[in-house]
Backbone:
């Protein structure tokens, strides 16, 4: 292998290390501070959480929010479905995050996406506990 082949192989392996299997949050339990909290209370907690972290949050319909996060030249977009009992954060779209869905292989995305989703989940849980 010549110098250019070694360089190309090195760059490919570096890119591969930057992607991980895509993570969603599926059916996480809602634990609101107020026991009588309804759908609107859950929505407010989710919107506050996303906004706190720089996400642009937009209600689509009762029980569903679209969230977009802009970081440098990257964009992550998720759908958050929720009820008074459960919520889920699902990948919707992205720009410059090396998203790849190939038959027979796990869906992968740039590693920071999963960190952003975990931070959003943590902040949602924290906001739900605010009375």
Residues:
């Amino acid at each position: 292998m010549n110098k250019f082949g070694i360089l190309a192989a090195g760059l490919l392996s570096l890119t591969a290390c930057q992607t991980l299997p895509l993570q969603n949050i599926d059916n996480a339990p809602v634990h609101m501070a107020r026991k009588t909290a309804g759908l609107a209370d859950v929505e407010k907690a989710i919107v506050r959480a996303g906004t706190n972290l720089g996400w642009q949050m937009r209600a689509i319909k009762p029980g569903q929010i679209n969230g977009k996060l802009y970081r440098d030249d990257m964009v992550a977009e998720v759908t958050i479905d929720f009820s008074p009992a459960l919520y889920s954060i699902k990948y919707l779209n992205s720009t410059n995050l090396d998203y790849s869905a190939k038959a027979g292989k796990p869906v992968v995305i740039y590693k920071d996406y999963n960190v952003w989703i975990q931070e959003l989940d943590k902040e949602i849980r924290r906001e739900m506990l605010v009375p």
User: Anything to note?
Assistant: Residues 2-16 have pLDDT under 50 and may be disordered. DSSP finds three helices and seven strands in the chain. The radius of gyration is 18 Å. Residues 111-128 form the longest helix (18 residues).
